[in-house]
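tool_call: predict_structure(chain=1)
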Amino acid sequence: MSTQNNLINSSNNMKSIIHLPIDNGFSCLRGLSPKKLRFEIEYSLGKGTTSNAFLFYRENKSLLNRKTILINPPGANFQEVFIPELKKIISDKSEELVIIIGHVNPNRVKLLREIAIEFSQVRIICSNPAGILLKELWNQTKPSQKNIINKQNSRILPIPQLTLVKQEETISIQNDYELKLIPAPTARWPGGLITFEEKTGLLMSDKLFGGHICTEEWAESNRASTDEERRHYFDCLMRPMVNQINRIVEKLELLNISAIAPCHGPAIETSWRSLLNDYQRWGDQQTKASIKIVLLFASAYGNTASIADTLAKGINSTGVQVKSLNCEFAKASELVESIKEANAYLIGSPTLGGHAPTPIISALGTLLAEGDRNKPVGIFGSYGWSGEAVDLLESKLHDGGFEFAFNPIKIKFSPNAQSLKMIEETGVMFARKLIKEEKRQQRQLSGGISTTKSDPALLALGKVIGSLSVLTAQKGEEEDTINSAMIASWISQASFSPPGITVAVAKDRAVEALLHTDDMFALNILDENNYQKLLKQFLQPFTPGSNRLSGLDLLSSPGKQPILPEALAWIEGCVKQRMECGDHWLIYAEILHGKVLNQNGITAVHHRRTGATY
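tool_result:
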């Protein structure tokens, strides 16, 4: 496929559009954003993003009765650069423009409204659930902190003609292209619709298989080059819907695919089959987990869904299973079955006009009727002005005899970097309580004796020792800065040239989110003579979202990483690789800077009785 680029610069947060020709009269219009678009957990790697739209257009303008087909236009974030590019390609505003929508959210609806203003003949093809959402969102204005009272003054035209896809169907267009439309509903995107072009074999997979990476290259260079970003995207968004995702993947495997082009990130040409396998492999742990949490939500503007995603990611990092159900589209029988199977419950709602949406009220009634009062519950939600929906959930569940696992999470408008950190750590805390209770019950059944810790091999493994250190990491700028820290002893030098180390980090550690490729951190190696105070500081229980470095007198490394003056020595590293090792990530980092702070000190060493625990 050709990758000739026509770059259009924009002063709007450095966003731009590039034109990537795919075949005759078939192109990708890729929106580039070097910075992340919003505060959502899947953007937290901070590597920017792309938004891939696809266009079938008339190369010969003299031909009549040929439509322009636009597939998966971006959201309003790219409006200022996308619409001018579209107008260059479609010079005749009266020409029919058919738009195929893979998923619906308020950001995309806002752009669709602007397209309807610019072009007089617009028709939208979408799935039946997407059509319902489009009708609900078309005349709504998303509340914002900048505009709380006055609605936007932009002109809103009537919704264009809708063509609803209720089952798989194929449409023929110019140049012998055949578009196979495949409904792909999930809890997060109930209106999901995948488009497969049969002549070129290109699967336009919408939200599936994406990764937030800003690149002008049409396709990834190899599978390893985007593995971390696609895995992070899967963990943030797909894992709570793994059963639905697996069913979709099984259906896609029957297609004669040559390449996959998701909404976000480069296309996958040579290794798309291994990515399909990875999606199923990454979800295996989820399906085998012994502890299950059902997560019930509805989300008018996407903010409550972002909270749900972040909670689920924190929970999943512990190995506990989350099953997400969108209450607007979940069947009553599935709702009842999921509640009965779950070990704990989460329910979240936006506040709309001072009330919770009707589907949430219905789901709350089902939870009150079918839920077990001996199982914990957590509630969350977003709001623009008041937040009555979360208050309603709290009062009804409290009066119903349920015990709350954490204080209600109420986020005004969209979550920011700090609140996302708090939400994810709340999910981790919630899951750890369930794991602790399961282990307590197992000990009771076995008579209170733990045979695992006395296993001869684990006793021998416990003789492997490591230096006691405090790993500190900081990321972001100004008000978006977040930091974290942990006690580390699973550390080893890994290379001489360049000098490098490996650090094992448990998947559910708060600092893990700050240790992705190209992230910086500092390793503060503790002194045998004064490590107890620091050990006490960092081994204490922290509330979700709390600053683990608060109140400490800190130095700063050249890479602006926190340094503890009491340390024996410090080294600053840059993460170069991550390898998944069971319940830990093994981080390899190249050492950039370092200093011995106490020339006469001795390294503190961690001695263990067994290899079953730290």
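agent: The CA atoms of residues 128 and 347 lie 25 Å apart. Proceeding to next step.
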